[in-house]
Amino acid sequence: MPAKAGDRHRQGQSGPSGGKAVPPRPAKAVSKKRDEDVSTEAGEGLDEWAAAKTLVKPPDQLELTEAELKEEFTRILTANNPHAPQNIVRYSFKKRAYKPISYVDQMAIHFSLNGNMILKDSDEGRRQKIRLSTAVEKASVETSAGTSEEAEIKDEESTGDTQAAGEEETEESGTAEVAEAAEAEEPPPPRVKEQKLANQFNFIERASGTLNNPMRERACQSEPIPCKNFSTTAYQWEIYDAYVEELQKIERSKEKEKSKAQIAKREEEKKKGRKLTSLESQSDDIMKISKAAKIMERMVNQNTFDDIAQDFKYFEDASDEYRDQQGTLLPLWKFQYDKTKRLAVTAISWNPKYKDLFAVGYGSYDFMKQGQGMLLLYTMKNPSFPEYVFSSESGIMCLDFHYDHSYLVAVGFYDGNVAIYNLKKATSQPSYKSSAKSGKHTEPVWQNELVHTDVIKLSVEGTTVQGPEGLQLQTLGCGTSFDFHKKIDYLFLVGTEEGKIYKCSKCYSSQFLDVFEAHHMAVDSVSWNPYHLKVFISCSSDWTVKIWDHTIKTPMFIYDLNSAVGDVAWAPYSSTVFAAVTTDGKAHVFDLSINKYEALCTQLVVAKKKNKITHIQFNPVYPVVIIGDERGHVTSLKLSPNLRRMPKEKKGQEVKKGPEVEIAKLDKLLNLVREPESKAEK
Amino acid sequence: MAEVEETLKRIQAHRGVVATIVVNAEGIPIRTTLDNSTTVQYAGLLHQLTMKARSTVRDIDPQNDLTFLRIRSKKHEIMVAPDKEYLLIVIQNPCE
């Protein structure tokens, strides 16, 4: 406080004088002026002194010249604080430099005094108020007439009160007692005390507030849009699929337009007729898995018959090298179906399109026991169950596939009917069937061939009937087998029960071109050589197999097989290889280019001796033959390498393949045979 | 319909076949010869694997498609034949 007072004094002096002038000088000037004032005042008062005009100078006053004394000093009155610093510099982080601050606070505090006012409502304020009120009460009580005892008590209380400053409880109890003792006077004084004290300006604070409306939250929410998480990966094939679908849609719409333009219904019906496979019913879920089930069955079979599959594909009998020229037949799969256990295999044929599919016809050769027949189609890929099963009332005697439309199978029955089965359709009934009206045979149909669209049937009674046209050829005997020439369309051979072979032509309906006195017993099978145009083979129950040139009446080769020969077949890969099966269960494979007189392989194929082999067929592609027997079994066998040997070429020459080579091969052989007999002639 | 049923029965009766499961497009088994928990497990896992395999095949060539999937393990062989909407799973013990 004293320091501040000193400040005040100093500042009070310099304030009016102006802040910018140098302090000591104006101070001196002021003091000087004051002195002058004083001196002039003193001069007026005391004339004698004034006349002298001598100034009273303090001893340490600055000596100044007259000019200097007369010098005028301007004083500017500003509101600036002279003590405020003018050159404050602060570091600016933005500019990374020290920057002078332009504005400086100019407030100068002249006087400050800490007050000792206490807020009325605070604790201390209340305490003091109560203390004051009790003091007033004491005073009022003391003035009123009261007992000395009470006064003493009060005195004591008051002394107690003064001694113990903050004991409110005693005060209160005291006041309560006082209130009880002196009855009437209590309420007014406290009320008076609590009256609002107006301040010196008569200012009373008054406040009012508006009514605050209670806040109420009103919210509205729309229903959330149902969200679904979807995630996928965009692959190239998904894009491709989308495009393909679009394309199909466009095509379908185009088709619909076309069909509308023409007669709609008929067109659609036709199209439906041509559609592949069975119509799937939409309601059946399990039908959709048919394809997968099929593949799966084949795979399961492949697993089970894994070794056989491996053999079929890769096994080549190495021991053939040591066996001279002999070969073997390796048994592969065995096909059987329980419903055909009592039936004999009467016909086998490979499908021209699908090289693993073959058809087997079941019936009975026994004249006395005739029952129902079955047509089964097996595939090598599934040895345990047939692909297609057709049953018929009468035993099947023969069957053939259509060359172009490989889904059509022509079947000849024992009762003389002929039927064509359409494999594309789901039904188990034939598509076409001849009946008594359409000129069917009355005797069993022994062989048929599906040539183009005609079904040519051969029946026992000796007529060859050609399809719907009904061309009939009368033969003297009863036909048992026939074969069409591969290249020459109209030419075909017919073998009879008597052992004769007739060469016939489609053009001549009543006469045959030639007759061969072939065998002593019924001719079981005739077959043209697949390569050589003139050669054919025949086999019969008289134990022989004969090879002919159709221009020559006598056979080229004769083989005696010690047992009735059931069937003979040329190999598709060579013009000199053929196989024959006999009723004693053996299969014989010959290769004329290697051994003209003996079979390269004679093997017992069927297990039980009582079983007779009825048919044999070569697979057009694979080195496999299938053999059907009387018990309804079909066995597949693989030909060992020796049986498939191609003639070795001389070094340097290209390996020629193709029909010409085969023809040449056979020709060579035939010439050897023919020379002693007749002129060498092609 | 009966044909397919018969085929499935034949497969199940074949030598070495342990189980047959038919799974739909979402991986839910609709037909099985195993107990429920194992079936669900097989169905879920193989469904994913088949999807992945199919995606792989088609990614390489979109015109190609998966026809069969075989997984051979020490104990048995799992074969999966995918279809447009279904999956046929067969577990077989290959006969050695």
Explain how this protein is built.
The complex is a heterodimer of chains A (682) and B (96). Chain A contains 13 helices and 30 strands. By secondary structure, chain A is α+β, with helices and mostly antiparallel strands. A 4-stranded antiparallel β-sheet of chain A has the order 3-30-29-28, with helices on one face. Chain A has a 4-stranded antiparallel β-sheet with strand order 4-5-6-7, with no helix packed on it. A 4-stranded antiparallel β-sheet of chain A has the order 8-9-10-11, with no helix packed on it. In chain A, helix 5 (123-143) packs parallel to helix 7 (168-181) and helix 9 packs across helix 10. The radius of gyration of chain A is 69 Å and the shape is rod-shaped. The termini of chain A are far apart. Chain B is 39% helix and 28% strand. In chain B, strand 1 and strand 2 form a beta hairpin. The A-B interface holds A 233, 235-237, 239-241, 281, 284-297, 299-301, 303-304, 306, 384-385 and B 1, 3-5, 7-8, 10-11, 14-17, 22, 30-31, 55, 58-59, 62-63, 67-68, 70, 77, 79, 81-88, 90, 92, 94-95.
Question: What tags apply to this protein structure?
Answer:
heterodimer; A: 682 residues; alpha+beta; four-stranded antiparallel sheet; disordered N terminus; B: 96 residues; Beta-Lactamase; five-stranded antiparallel sheet; 39% helix; globular
